[in-house]
Amino acid sequence: MQFSGKSVVLTGSGSGIGRELAADVDIAAARETVGLCASCPGDARAVQCDVSDDAAQEALFAEHVRRHGGVDIAILNAGIYERGDFVESEGPGWQATLKVNLLGALVGARLAARAMTSFGKPGVILFMASAGGLFPMPIAPVYAASKAALVHLTRSAAPTLARRGIRLAAVCPQPVDTPMVQTMMNAGFELPETGASLLTAARVSEATMLLLEDEAASGKLLMVHVNGKFYTWKPPGFRKSLVPVERAAAASGAGAPGAAAERAALAAWARDSIPSQGRKLQVHRLSTDFRVATRIVAERVPAASELPPGHVLVRRAFAAINASDINYTAGRYFGSTADAEKRLPFDAGFEAVGVVAALGPDVKGLAVGDAVAQMAYGAFSEWGVVPVRHALPVPSPAPEVVALLTSGLTASIGLEEAGRLRRGDTVLVTAAAGGTGQFAVQLAAQAGCMVVATCGSAAKAALLKRLGAARVINHREEVVKDVLKREFPKGMDVVWEAVGGEMLATGVHALARGGRLVVIGAVSQYAAGWAPGALPPGTPELLLWRSATLTGFFLLHYTHLYRKHLQRLVAAWRSGRLHVALDPTPFRGLEAVAEAEDLLLSGGSVGKIVVQLSAEAPPRGDSSFSKL
């Protein structure tokens, strides 16, 4: 960055690092600084401002903009430390530390960003944080907390500001030889982490200038060590930051009694009702008519002593309805009709949640009473013998959890792997109020994308607006392709397509340059036999000229990603960040599965359709569920 002709707002410049910075910035512009030379030829001014006073900062920035026509650089350096012991000290000293170090810097950053944005000029905002914001600082915990907040604010806000042409970064020095630090040391504060060594303000100023000059420093955290060296601080990766907590350790912590009681209740629900015989749905004839294809049959439920090694007995609580159920009953997932005929009869259903009722030999990692999910054929059954490797631990056997399986995983993995979703994308989601579409809408919106969603009723449109869709198109009231052409002339970066037929053609023609269309299904064609369809004329040429892609996504090809994405989805649901919309129609028992399939194919469902398989639902403890 060239400093000549730039305007700079620098807080905390009365002494220490701030004074050194003021000198460096003006030296870089061939100017002497205020405080060093009263006859500065440049337009440099010293202004008294309490950064903990929002109005005072607003006046400061307004006057600076009036005089200089904007703000090019803001270095937010003002800072104080807390006085006294963290527990025993009296008075508001610690609050002042937060007001100056954190709130003052935050207000200054917002004012600087607004000034830069209003004039449409790129700019740089630098926080003077601290190594105490990267590592524990027992001698001044409130000061450390304020600086740690600046560190995380830098990491979190930098991407948003970068899209506006503003670079946000932070300098994180170890203790510096400034009046503030000297006062701390004179008051008896020790610096064991640095061996009583101190940095010079000049060295910190050099680091700051380095960040200012680095055009690629958005979000960068530059640590200045007391040895004088500079280090880019990078936080550990997500996986390295997480250490699994073993069940035994967790049981001794807070909340363990409630969790233990809930688990005991689930164990009793599953274990105390094991019958000698259960029921399941089997496919006896290949057909897209679920009633014609299936019937309920009895099956023997093995005793615990009869379970094979590495298997568990699961009492199933809820199963989900999927559009692909009738593809399965029609034999489309077996390579050929002849191969499917040879396998008759075979068990139906793709996914369910339940509770472990008994353990076979050599089972590790699961216990009776644990809630598990299963994504394997045969889910439409009251009991199941499941290999441990296929039993996915979940926090509860809730209907919301079963909705997160095929539907949630398809959206989560598909958008990431096939859609290559990027912040700022415009995303079209078809059949958006269904089991999978609802998650695609939310995940795309939460990733910083503009979501356009299609549906077929006012109730579905209302749901999609609540889930974060920026534009909802009811295809029964508006022509989708006309809306897209009129309101989104630049096209769609991602098209998430589940309908097929005419909607697929609309999606292809709506692709932007570099757009990605992901086909996850063709629900409009399933009941009629899903005959091979032709792509819209000119599709290869359109993809070529727009550098676009047309990609299929089949969830079963991504089994290695199930656990990671399911953990992410469940965590988002339990924290309230992800809403699970369930169709309100109650379906209970295997006898209701065919009726549930009919509702799905009618297009009248809103959200995921779930069937309660057990006669009575499992106990639902408050500790396992987010309140949605």
TrEMBL record:
<dbReference type="InterPro" id="IPR002347">
    <property type="entry name" value="SDR_fam"/>
</dbReference>
<feature type="domain" description="Enoyl reductase (ER)">
    <location>
        <begin position="293"/>
        <end position="611"/>
    </location>
</feature>
<dbReference type="Pfam" id="PF00107">
    <property type="entry name" value="ADH_zinc_N"/>
</dbReference>
<dbReference type="InterPro" id="IPR011032">
    <property type="entry name" value="GroES-like_sf"/>
</dbReference>
<dbReference type="InterPro" id="IPR013149">
    <property type="entry name" value="ADH-like_C"/>
</dbReference>
<dbReference type="Pfam" id="PF08240">
    <property type="entry name" value="ADH_N"/>
</dbReference>
<dbReference type="GO" id="GO:0016491">
    <property type="term" value="F:oxidoreductase activity"/>
</dbReference>
<protein>
    <recommendedName>
        <fullName>Enoyl reductase (ER) domain-containing protein</fullName>
    </recommendedName>
</protein>
<dbReference type="InterPro" id="IPR020904">
    <property type="entry name" value="Sc_DH/Rdtase_CS"/>
</dbReference>
<dbReference type="InterPro" id="IPR020843">
    <property type="entry name" value="ER"/>
</dbReference>
<dbReference type="InterPro" id="IPR051397">
    <property type="entry name" value="Zn-ADH-like_protein"/>
</dbReference>
<dbReference type="GO" id="GO:0005739">
    <property type="term" value="C:mitochondrion"/>
</dbReference>
<dbReference type="Pfam" id="PF00106">
    <property type="entry name" value="adh_short"/>
</dbReference>
<dbReference type="InterPro" id="IPR013154">
    <property type="entry name" value="ADH-like_N"/>
</dbReference>
<dbReference type="InterPro" id="IPR036291">
    <property type="entry name" value="NAD(P)-bd_dom_sf"/>
</dbReference>
<keyword id="KW-0560">Oxidoreductase</keyword>
